[in-house]
User: Fold this.
Amino acid sequence: MNNAESGTTYEIIDLCLLAGKIMLQNGAETYRVEDTMTRMAASLGFPGAHSYVTPTVIMFTTSRTEQPKLFRIEERTTDLQKVAEVNDISRCLSQRQITSAEARERLALVDEAAHAYPVWLQIMAAALAGACFTIIFKGSFTDALTALFVSGLGYAAVVYLQRLVQIKFFAELTASALIGLLSFLFVQASAGAETDKIIIGSVMPLVPGLLITNAVRDLMAGHLISGLSKGAEAFLTAFAIGTGIGLVLSFVS
Assistant:
Protein backbone atom coordinates (compact mmCIF):
# COMPACT_ATOMS: atom_id res chain seq x y z
CA MET A 1 0.00 0.00 0.00
CA ASN A 2 1.47 3.38 -0.99
CA ASN A 3 1.36 6.50 1.18
CA ALA A 4 -1.61 8.00 -0.68
CA GLU A 5 -3.68 4.83 -0.24
CA SER A 6 -2.63 4.57 3.41
CA GLY A 7 -3.65 8.15 4.04
CA THR A 8 -7.05 7.56 2.43
CA THR A 9 -7.59 4.43 4.51
CA TYR A 10 -6.78 6.25 7.75
CA GLU A 11 -9.10 9.10 6.81
CA ILE A 12 -11.95 6.66 6.18
CA ILE A 13 -11.28 4.90 9.49
CA ASP A 14 -11.30 8.24 11.31
CA LEU A 15 -14.52 9.20 9.54
CA CYS A 16 -16.27 5.97 10.58
CA LEU A 17 -14.94 6.22 14.14
CA LEU A 18 -16.21 9.80 14.40
CA ALA A 19 -19.68 8.73 13.29
CA GLY A 20 -19.68 5.82 15.74
CA LYS A 21 -18.45 8.00 18.59
CA ILE A 22 -21.19 10.59 18.09
CA MET A 23 -23.90 7.93 17.97
CA LEU A 24 -22.70 5.96 20.97
CA GLN A 25 -22.17 9.06 23.11
CA ASN A 26 -25.71 10.23 22.44
CA GLY A 27 -27.79 7.13 23.17
CA ALA A 28 -27.72 4.96 20.03
CA GLU A 29 -27.99 1.19 20.25
CA THR A 30 -24.79 -0.83 19.82
CA TYR A 31 -25.98 -2.72 16.73
CA ARG A 32 -27.03 0.56 15.09
CA VAL A 33 -23.56 2.03 15.64
CA GLU A 34 -21.86 -1.03 14.14
CA ASP A 35 -24.21 -1.11 11.16
CA THR A 36 -23.73 2.59 10.42
CA MET A 37 -19.93 2.34 10.55
CA THR A 38 -19.74 -0.69 8.26
CA ARG A 39 -22.21 0.82 5.79
CA MET A 40 -20.20 4.03 5.60
CA ALA A 41 -16.98 2.07 5.02
CA ALA A 42 -18.62 -0.06 2.33
CA SER A 43 -19.85 3.01 0.49
CA LEU A 44 -16.27 4.34 0.47
CA GLY A 45 -14.79 1.18 -1.05
CA PHE A 46 -14.20 -1.07 1.98
CA PRO A 47 -16.97 -3.69 1.97
CA GLY A 48 -14.96 -5.98 4.26
CA ALA A 49 -14.84 -3.55 7.19
CA HIS A 50 -15.46 -4.85 10.71
CA SER A 51 -16.54 -3.05 13.86
CA TYR A 52 -16.92 -4.09 17.49
CA VAL A 53 -18.75 -1.77 19.84
CA THR A 54 -19.40 -1.84 23.58
CA PRO A 55 -20.91 0.99 25.67
CA THR A 56 -17.39 2.30 26.41
CA VAL A 57 -15.18 1.18 23.49
CA ILE A 58 -15.32 1.25 19.69
CA MET A 59 -12.95 -0.91 17.61
CA PHE A 60 -12.91 -0.65 13.84
CA THR A 61 -10.87 -1.98 10.94
CA THR A 62 -11.29 -1.92 7.16
CA SER A 63 -10.02 -5.49 6.63
CA ARG A 64 -9.22 -8.69 8.46
CA THR A 65 -5.46 -8.18 8.10
CA GLU A 66 -5.31 -4.60 9.31
CA GLN A 67 -4.78 -3.71 12.97
CA PRO A 68 -8.06 -2.40 14.46
CA LYS A 69 -8.25 1.20 15.64
CA LEU A 70 -9.73 1.81 19.10
CA PHE A 71 -11.68 4.74 20.49
CA ARG A 72 -12.76 4.97 24.14
CA ILE A 73 -16.09 6.53 25.12
CA GLU A 74 -15.79 8.30 28.48
CA GLU A 75 -19.02 10.27 28.59
CA ARG A 76 -22.52 9.32 27.46
CA THR A 77 -25.72 11.31 27.32
CA THR A 78 -29.04 11.25 25.47
CA ASP A 79 -29.43 13.35 22.34
CA LEU A 80 -31.37 11.42 19.72
CA GLN A 81 -31.29 14.40 17.38
CA LYS A 82 -27.55 13.87 16.89
CA VAL A 83 -28.13 10.15 16.29
CA ALA A 84 -30.71 10.97 13.63
CA GLU A 85 -28.37 13.48 11.97
CA VAL A 86 -25.53 10.93 11.79
CA ASN A 87 -27.94 8.40 10.27
CA ASP A 88 -28.93 10.97 7.66
CA ILE A 89 -25.28 11.67 6.81
CA SER A 90 -24.64 7.94 6.49
CA ARG A 91 -27.57 7.51 4.09
CA CYS A 92 -26.43 10.46 1.96
CA LEU A 93 -22.92 8.99 1.82
CA SER A 94 -24.22 5.53 0.86
CA GLN A 95 -26.35 7.04 -1.90
CA ARG A 96 -23.38 9.03 -3.24
CA GLN A 97 -25.11 12.33 -2.53
CA ILE A 98 -22.10 13.68 -0.61
CA THR A 99 -18.35 12.99 -0.58
CA SER A 100 -16.30 11.73 2.36
CA ALA A 101 -14.91 15.25 2.90
CA GLU A 102 -18.41 16.70 3.06
CA ALA A 103 -19.48 13.91 5.41
CA ARG A 104 -16.54 14.70 7.69
CA GLU A 105 -17.45 18.39 7.77
CA ARG A 106 -21.08 17.63 8.59
CA LEU A 107 -20.11 15.12 11.30
CA ALA A 108 -17.74 17.66 12.86
CA LEU A 109 -20.57 20.19 13.04
CA VAL A 110 -22.87 17.62 14.66
CA ASP A 111 -20.16 16.63 17.16
CA GLU A 112 -19.43 20.23 18.16
CA ALA A 113 -23.08 21.28 18.41
CA ALA A 114 -24.42 22.01 21.85
CA HIS A 115 -27.03 19.78 23.45
CA ALA A 116 -30.34 19.86 21.61
CA TYR A 117 -32.09 21.48 24.56
CA PRO A 118 -30.72 23.80 27.27
CA VAL A 119 -30.60 22.58 30.86
CA TRP A 120 -33.39 24.90 32.03
CA LEU A 121 -35.72 23.47 29.40
CA GLN A 122 -34.81 19.91 30.41
CA ILE A 123 -35.64 20.75 34.03
CA MET A 124 -38.98 22.26 33.02
CA ALA A 125 -39.79 19.21 30.92
CA ALA A 126 -38.88 16.90 33.81
CA ALA A 127 -41.11 18.92 36.15
CA LEU A 128 -44.04 18.74 33.75
CA ALA A 129 -43.48 15.03 33.20
CA GLY A 130 -43.45 14.41 36.94
CA ALA A 131 -46.77 16.22 37.37
CA CYS A 132 -48.36 14.32 34.48
CA PHE A 133 -47.15 10.96 35.78
CA THR A 134 -48.63 11.78 39.19
CA ILE A 135 -52.03 12.25 37.59
CA ILE A 136 -51.57 9.04 35.57
CA PHE A 137 -50.91 7.18 38.82
CA LYS A 138 -54.24 8.53 40.16
CA GLY A 139 -52.82 11.35 42.23
CA SER A 140 -54.89 14.46 42.89
CA PHE A 141 -54.43 17.81 41.19
CA THR A 142 -52.80 19.11 44.37
CA ASP A 143 -50.36 16.18 44.30
CA ALA A 144 -49.57 16.97 40.68
CA LEU A 145 -48.74 20.59 41.49
CA THR A 146 -46.47 19.41 44.29
CA ALA A 147 -44.82 16.87 41.98
CA LEU A 148 -44.27 19.64 39.44
CA PHE A 149 -42.00 21.38 41.92
CA VAL A 150 -40.43 18.27 43.46
CA SER A 151 -39.57 16.53 40.18
CA GLY A 152 -38.04 19.73 38.80
CA LEU A 153 -35.79 20.08 41.84
CA GLY A 154 -34.91 16.40 41.73
CA TYR A 155 -33.85 16.53 38.08
CA ALA A 156 -31.90 19.75 38.68
CA ALA A 157 -30.09 18.00 41.55
CA VAL A 158 -29.08 15.12 39.24
CA VAL A 159 -27.69 17.52 36.63
CA TYR A 160 -25.78 19.60 39.18
CA LEU A 161 -24.41 16.71 41.25
CA GLN A 162 -23.29 14.77 38.18
CA ARG A 163 -21.26 17.78 37.07
CA LEU A 164 -19.88 18.19 40.58
CA VAL A 165 -18.78 14.65 41.41
CA GLN A 166 -19.14 12.87 38.02
CA ILE A 167 -20.50 9.75 39.71
CA LYS A 168 -23.91 8.95 38.28
CA PHE A 169 -24.93 6.54 41.06
CA PHE A 170 -24.25 9.10 43.80
CA ALA A 171 -26.09 11.84 41.90
CA GLU A 172 -29.18 9.69 41.36
CA LEU A 173 -29.24 8.38 44.93
CA THR A 174 -28.96 11.89 46.39
CA ALA A 175 -31.59 13.30 44.02
CA SER A 176 -34.06 10.52 44.81
CA ALA A 177 -33.49 11.07 48.54
CA LEU A 178 -34.22 14.77 48.00
CA ILE A 179 -37.42 13.87 46.15
CA GLY A 180 -38.53 11.59 48.98
CA LEU A 181 -37.78 14.20 51.65
CA LEU A 182 -39.50 17.04 49.80
CA SER A 183 -42.55 14.92 49.10
CA PHE A 184 -42.87 14.02 52.78
CA LEU A 185 -42.42 17.63 53.91
CA PHE A 186 -44.97 18.97 51.44
CA VAL A 187 -47.57 16.43 52.56
CA GLN A 188 -46.86 17.29 56.19
CA ALA A 189 -47.40 20.95 55.31
CA SER A 190 -50.76 20.02 53.66
CA ALA A 191 -49.43 20.96 50.20
CA GLY A 192 -50.13 17.42 49.02
CA ALA A 193 -52.40 14.53 49.93
CA GLU A 194 -50.53 11.30 49.15
CA THR A 195 -46.77 11.00 49.55
CA ASP A 196 -46.48 7.82 47.52
CA LYS A 197 -48.22 9.32 44.46
CA ILE A 198 -45.98 12.39 44.55
CA ILE A 199 -42.83 10.28 44.90
CA ILE A 200 -43.78 7.88 42.10
CA GLY A 201 -44.57 10.70 39.70
CA SER A 202 -41.48 12.73 40.64
CA VAL A 203 -38.94 9.92 40.15
CA MET A 204 -40.22 8.97 36.69
CA PRO A 205 -37.95 11.50 34.90
CA LEU A 206 -34.98 9.72 36.52
CA VAL A 207 -36.02 6.23 35.36
CA PRO A 208 -33.59 4.95 32.67
CA GLY A 209 -36.21 4.14 30.05
CA LEU A 210 -33.95 4.60 27.01
CA LEU A 211 -31.19 2.55 28.64
CA ILE A 212 -33.55 -0.34 29.36
CA THR A 213 -34.92 -0.23 25.80
CA ASN A 214 -31.42 -0.23 24.29
CA ALA A 215 -30.36 -3.10 26.56
CA VAL A 216 -33.28 -5.24 25.40
CA ARG A 217 -32.76 -4.36 21.73
CA ASP A 218 -29.04 -5.15 21.95
CA LEU A 219 -29.78 -8.50 23.58
CA MET A 220 -32.33 -9.32 20.89
CA ALA A 221 -29.76 -8.37 18.22
CA GLY A 222 -27.21 -10.76 19.75
CA HIS A 223 -24.93 -8.15 21.34
CA LEU A 224 -24.80 -9.89 24.71
CA ILE A 225 -21.95 -7.90 26.30
CA SER A 226 -23.50 -4.53 25.45
CA GLY A 227 -26.98 -5.68 26.40
CA LEU A 228 -25.90 -7.05 29.77
CA SER A 229 -23.72 -4.03 30.60
CA LYS A 230 -26.52 -1.59 29.74
CA GLY A 231 -28.94 -3.71 31.73
CA ALA A 232 -26.56 -3.61 34.71
CA GLU A 233 -26.29 0.16 34.39
CA ALA A 234 -30.08 0.47 34.31
CA PHE A 235 -30.32 -1.78 37.38
CA LEU A 236 -27.84 0.42 39.26
CA THR A 237 -29.90 3.50 38.42
CA ALA A 238 -33.09 1.80 39.61
CA PHE A 239 -31.26 0.63 42.74
CA ALA A 240 -30.02 4.16 43.43
CA ILE A 241 -33.53 5.58 43.08
CA GLY A 242 -35.06 2.93 45.32
CA THR A 243 -32.31 3.24 47.93
CA GLY A 244 -32.59 7.02 48.13
CA ILE A 245 -36.35 6.90 48.57
CA GLY A 246 -36.15 3.99 51.00
CA LEU A 247 -33.57 5.69 53.21
CA VAL A 248 -35.68 8.81 53.58
CA LEU A 249 -38.92 6.97 54.26
CA SER A 250 -37.23 4.73 56.81
CA PHE A 251 -36.13 7.77 58.80
CA VAL A 252 -39.31 9.85 58.59
CA SER A 253 -41.85 7.06 59.10
